[in-house]
Amino acid sequence: MGILNVTPDSFSDGGLWTDPTAAVRHAFDMVDQGAGVIDIGAESTRPNASPVTAQEELARLEPVLKELAPSVDVPISVDTMKAEVAERCIALGATIVNDVLGLRGPGMTEVCASTGVDVVIMHMNGMPESMPAAMGDGFMDEIRGFLEARASYALDAGIRRESIILDPGIGFGKDPVQNSEILENSSYFSCGGYPVLSASSRKRFLATRYPGMDRDDASAEAALVAVRSGAAMVRVHDVARTAELLGVR
């Protein structure tokens, strides 16, 4: 899954792809480099990030989706917490909703169920504007329990089992030791067979795990660890470097 941030303030590449033409070109490049999904986000979820309105999100997303969706042969995912944004992006061609709130926002479950899209349900400890630095004891079971409960909720709401992907939320309110343990045990979060998405690319804990290593080399190494521990998909910034290490180009 190649990351396309059309935000001015994302933690590692904010502002690089705010121009729709540049964003679409970058998406094409990532597909050429081996991306099997393009994940477009227009609201930063880094710690202490300020929320944006649905109107602002859509103003950033729509011009990219209108050009990109008819032109690529890989699925497009929209990274959003808002049902209004998801619904409009689905109408423009997105087929996956990547929701860091885990389908807890008003109307999101209904939109995903009624449109039949795939969903990524993520665990987040706190909220971006007020995220704790770590979880407590038993955090692995707590994350798994949350994901299991949200998957069950999604099924009850009419989302198909084969449409559900689970993400334990590396970097979202966990400390470096916790993030590494999550990374090394991806399959623990499958909750009975759901595919797991691992998203550690360019996150700060990698500097602790791989001291002195280039951040994209470290991200690729982490992606390899995730796949070997059971992740079905990895979300990355540098598709070429990761695809080469994973041998999927």
Provide a compact summary of the structure.
The chain has nine helices and eight strands. The protein is α/β, with parallel strands linked by helices.
Structure, explained:
The chain is α/β, with parallel strands linked by helices. The chain has one domain: Dihydropteroate synthase-like (TIM Barrel, Alpha-Beta Barrel), CATH 3.20.20. The chain has 9 helices and 8 strands. The strands form 2 sheets. It has a 6-stranded parallel sheet, covered by helices on one side. It has a two-stranded parallel ribbon with strand order 7-8. The longest helix has 18 residues. The model has no long low-confidence stretch (mean pLDDT 94).
Contiguous helical run count: 9
State the helicity in percent bands: 25-40%
Strand content: 5-15%
Name the CATH superfamily classification.
Dihydropteroate synthase-like
Return the structural class.
alpha/beta
Level-2 CATH architecture: Alpha-Beta Barrel
Q: Tell me the CATH topology.
A: TIM Barrel
Q: Major beta sheet, specifics?
A: 6 strands, parallel
Strand count: 8
Summarize the helix and strand pattern as letters: EHEHEHEHEHEHEHHEH
- Which ranges are low-confidence, i.e. pLDDT below 50, for 5 or more consecutive residues? none
Rg measurement, Å: 17 Å
Name the average pLDDT.
94
Distance between the termini: 13 Å
- Whole-number count of domains: 1
The order of strands across the largest sheet is 1-2-3-4-5-6
